[in-house]
Amino acid sequence: MTRVKICGITNLEDALAACGAGADALGFVFYEPSPRNIDIQTAKSILEQLPPFVSTVGLFVNADPGFLRSVLEAVPLDLLQFHGDESEAECSAWGRPYIKAIRMKAGTDLAAQCQTYHSSRGILLDTFVAGQPGGTGQTFNWQAVPKGLSKPIVLAGGLDPSNAADAVRQVRPWAVDVSGGVEAAKGKKDNALMQAFITGVHSVSK
């Protein structure tokens, strides 16, 4: 079964609705320019009220080490997601499980990226848009994802209920990651869209 991460959670209501809809993981954006940015205390409060067996993921973009340390000291995240230009050494330095986002464009060598980030738990594939580290709302060419990569793949970029099943069918990723595609407004999720998205993903048998 392909796993589902709902990213850009900003409030407890959305977090609990995502869990109720069947999300395997929730993503929290610690990146101030993002409309889905969350402060440390709000994130801490949400995590303290989540049910068991839901993974929590913190998203960072070229974060200042002091800021990242302050997040980790207060918020019990299960996984880190690095969405900037972080090196393998910078990602692994925290001694925490992590995934590394790669922004897909022509000529991206995913096999080489998997080798570069050999310490990662997986590679997240997002759409390359100049000046935007993520949250583009745009898909990329799924045919560009080779089979047999050495790391589990998390597919992101422009996913929504209308294309979730096709995305899983074509790429066969370990997991999918959605944010804007299940929102009523930036930073506010839509319960029906989250449910429809997860239903679409689960409709495709492995």
TrEMBL record:
<dbReference type="GO" id="GO:0000162">
    <property type="term" value="P:L-tryptophan biosynthetic process"/>
</dbReference>
<dbReference type="GO" id="GO:0004640">
    <property type="term" value="F:phosphoribosylanthranilate isomerase activity"/>
</dbReference>
<dbReference type="InterPro" id="IPR001240">
    <property type="entry name" value="PRAI_dom"/>
</dbReference>
<dbReference type="InterPro" id="IPR011060">
    <property type="entry name" value="RibuloseP-bd_barrel"/>
</dbReference>
<keyword id="KW-0028">Amino-acid biosynthesis</keyword>
<keyword id="KW-0413">Isomerase</keyword>
<keyword id="KW-0057">Aromatic amino acid biosynthesis</keyword>
<comment type="similarity">
    <text>Belongs to the TrpF family.</text>
</comment>
<dbReference type="InterPro" id="IPR013785">
    <property type="entry name" value="Aldolase_TIM"/>
</dbReference>
<feature type="domain" description="N-(5'phosphoribosyl) anthranilate isomerase (PRAI)">
    <location>
        <begin position="4"/>
        <end position="198"/>
    </location>
</feature>
<protein>
    <recommendedName>
        <fullName>N-(5'-phosphoribosyl)anthranilate isomerase</fullName>
        <ecNumber>5.3.1.24</ecNumber>
    </recommendedName>
</protein>
<comment type="pathway">
    <text>Amino-acid biosynthesis; L-tryptophan biosynthesis; L-tryptophan from chorismate: step 3/5.</text>
</comment>
<dbReference type="InterPro" id="IPR044643">
    <property type="entry name" value="TrpF_fam"/>
</dbReference>
<keyword id="KW-0822">Tryptophan biosynthesis</keyword>
<dbReference type="Pfam" id="PF00697">
    <property type="entry name" value="PRAI"/>
</dbReference>
